[in-house]
Amino acid sequence: MDYEQIRAFRNEKNLFGKRLGIYVEELGPGYARAVKTVTEEDLNPLQVPHGGVYFTLADTACGSAMAAYGAMAVTVNCSFSFLKSAKAGDRLTAEARELPGGRSICVLEARVTGEAGELFAAGAFTFRRLDKPIGP
Hints:
Blueprint: H1 3-13, H2 15-20, E1 23-28, E2 31-37, H3 51-67, E3 71-82, E4 91-98, E5 105-113, E6 119-133
Antiparallel strand pairs: 1-2, 2-4, 3-6, 4-5, 5-6
């Protein structure tokens, strides 16, 4: 399996992630790391990143970890907690790791951290693996 090709495909075809500045740095079966720098446009009226920024970063990491198996997958459920607020200019990293278990239904844990290791958000994402190969 060519993980670099899958990573490049994910970065190119995730138009919503591209618009938000999310970039998948690394992936392998059941693991992925995605990054994003918080911009002024990501802030809500309280001047902290909108919760959707953390969620989308984590969901992108989890989806990429699933894609590393070479098949498409979709999120079917999630439990996500917002723990601390970042600020504009902070670089966020989401790491996703698959829990041992299912074949078509898979659960991944995601943690969104800052450069100093502070934990901003965490969640568990449930995915359904599809019978559709990754690719053009």
